[in-house]
Amino acid sequence: xxxxxxxxxxxxxxxxxxxxxxxxxxxxxxxxxxxxxxxxxxxxxxxxxxxxxxxxxxxxxxxxxxxxxxxxxxxxxxxxxxxxxxxxxxxxxxxxxxxxxxxxxxxxxxxxxxxxxxxxxxxxxxxxxxxxxxxxxxxxxxxxxxxxxxxxxxxxxxxxxxxxxxxxxxxxxxxxxxxxxxxxxxxxxxxxxxxxxxxxxxxxxxxxxxxxxxxxxxxxxxxxxxxxxxxxxxxxxxxxxxxxxxxxxxxxxxxxxxxxxxxxxxxxxxxxxxxxxxxxxxxxxxxxxxxxxxxxxxxxxxxxxxxxxxxxxxxxxxxxxxxxxxxxxxxxxxxxxxxxxxxxxxxxxxxxxxxxxxxxxxxxxxxxxxxxxxxxxxxxxxxxxxxxxxxxxxxxxxxxxxxxxxxxxxxxxxxxx
Length: 417
Ligand code: EPU
What we know:
- The protein is of the alpha/beta class.
- The protein contains 14 helices and 24 strands.
């Protein structure tokens, strides 16, 4: 993955082809769901991400075995000896709390550190816990840990106050091995939920309705190993589309599902890009001048919060003012401050930001404050005059497989140090 800093000399239009990797937010729950299986699972062509390494360490700490054969990741959870996710683990990666569902199903007990706030918001887990309670789980909380225990998970009807991705996944995994049928209403509809349901069904599960607001899970008594290839990363793809758009590029992406990127494509077309969809490819041709357009982040199929920072970077170079409303997380504008250091004119008012464009972006020393904020800085730097140094790049490595090499391949002057 390389050094701690990413150095970019801006001003080169991106031209060529980038191959998109498997989705971070699909592979993490799929790896965790392998805990449901009493025999090994093979995840084909898994993305090489720091977060994948961390979740594998989490599984190892529970007694499962994980190993790579070439680009395929194997998870063997035939024996699980521990049922705790420590504070250290949850602090490193919030997605670790997804072990709750499978461990309750396999062991009847789990102890996890209750995650605190993070760089993008408070991110409580109340919806996960309420759902488990409805399935016959008793909760107790002490010293920052939640202990959940059950004599046997049973199917339940669960309405989520908000279509949380993590809560939908956690409950779907628990329900897969519960007695009876679970119905999750107001479920998250993200493509990653569909991918997880397909994976569980390949292990012998019975899940219907994933990708809609109502998911029905008929519990089965055992799940067994299978092979699965996760969906392409729609956020990685979207980030490269933004990078092409801001540099006046001409880029083709391979291994994409255009349907998963509809709100992003619609916006890019609105701001002046030409986009052509092939079977598993997307081609973008950027205009001479971008025009400004507003966005509001929403759960899928709305504009993804995970593309908000990158879109903000793009709007700094567009003609006119754009309003960016963040409705999913309450504190996801940390990148605005760093973009300002590069010359952007951005005002934040509560959960909205106003970007006045076009501004002259100039290289600067900036730092990634979270994964997508880091991607936004890379995008801005690619269009900026001169030299940008991005620090805290471990955030970027969490979710972008080989970012520097992929961008070098399409002409960007980008190095790691
Ligand atoms: N929420 C609650 N209570 C809960 C759960 C969530 O109030 O019990 C709130 C959160 O605080 C937040 C909103 O609901 O304001 C959305 O949270 P959600 O549970 O949907 O998100 P998540 O499962 O924690 C996943 C992705 C995020 C992505 C969000 C939204 C993974 C591993 N993470 O997080 O990805 O932003 O869904 O789409 O799948 C990223 O990749 O950069 C990233 C942050």
